[in-house]
Specification:
The protein is an alpha/beta fold and 302 residues long. It has two domains: 94 residues, Leucine Dehydrogenase, chain A, domain 1 (Rossmann fold), CATH 3.40.50; 139 residues, Rossmann fold (3-Layer(aba) Sandwich), CATH 3.40.50. Helix content is 37%, strand content 15%. A hairpin with a 5-residue loop joins strand 9 and strand 10. The longest helix is centred in the N-terminal third of the chain and has 21 residues. The structure holds nicotinamide-adenine-dinucleotide (NAD).
Length: 302
Amino acid sequence: MTNPTIIDGTFLAMKKIEAVREQVEKICSQSLRAPKLAVILVGDNEASKIYVRNKEKKAKECFIDSETIILPSDVSKEELEETIFKLNLDEKVDAILLQLPLPQNLISDSFDEKYFLSLISPSKDVDCLTSFNQGMVFNGSSSIYPCTPQGVLNLIDFTYSDLDTSISFDSIKSANLAGKSALIVGRSLLVGKPLSLMLLNRNATVTMAHSKTQNLQDLVKDKDIIVTATGYPKLFNSQNVKDGAILIDVGINKLENGKLVGDLDFESFKNKDCYITPVPGGVGPMTIASLMENVVKLYKNR
Ligand code: NAD
């Protein structure tokens, strides 16, 4: 009987954080100021508060300066705009992250989340969500890539490096994806769409699936790489998944019993010869580590 090989995102993220910390130490040893991340948190969304706290903690571990600007949920459109403009102009701020989702009262037909994200200066847009930076991702010439897709690519490269835990993060080679077939399930601006372009730019043959796709279980057939980012548990199982496939589960779903699970029917893979990320402990830690990496890249760009 075979077992799946677990792709340990917690381990890889730790390696990545170490690499980022070394870079910041080098910067600070030259008597230069540390890179700085500013996070804007609007309202009382409990999950957002936890995400922001985790980001502050990781920034501290990397010696990155971080500041969280907390705005009440009834903040006006103008106040939020002004907060973003001030951070754009602040010479000491290298990276700006607007934590989503925004409270409903800020959203209207004319001003959705995309509008507020578009106000961030592209040179400080740490998650690549402005149209300018999305264009750069589109043509493959961006200096930074969105945090979650970047973390997914790192996990794929790590897997193709035989999950060699002895090498440093910077020694992990970009895998040759020419001739590899990839299926991405989910077409969000945050994950699925940029990831499809990033894999395409790496010469993979990419298939996209989404909520209107029929027969998902058939589409998984023969794919070398499968990435799911939907927010729906048990989206598909191991049936038709080819031996040796790499499965990256971006989804985070809280079940009624409080358990966190991904999009994949994880149990069904327990006798499958494949590589698979767990939830939690897969993509989540890599997203935060990639955020820290992007802060330092933006600092260096400026
Ligand atoms: P989203 O809601 O913006 O997009 C979901 C996508 O899934 C849509 O494109 C939709 O078409 C597709 N979809 C929905 N139901 C489907 C179905 N039955 N079959 C096929 N496709 C379907 O979500 P998002 O922001 O991309 O996030 C997706 C999931 O990933 C969520 O669970 C989110 O919490 C998680 N997430 C995790 C991380 C991380 O760091 N681990 C980061 C971002 C998002």
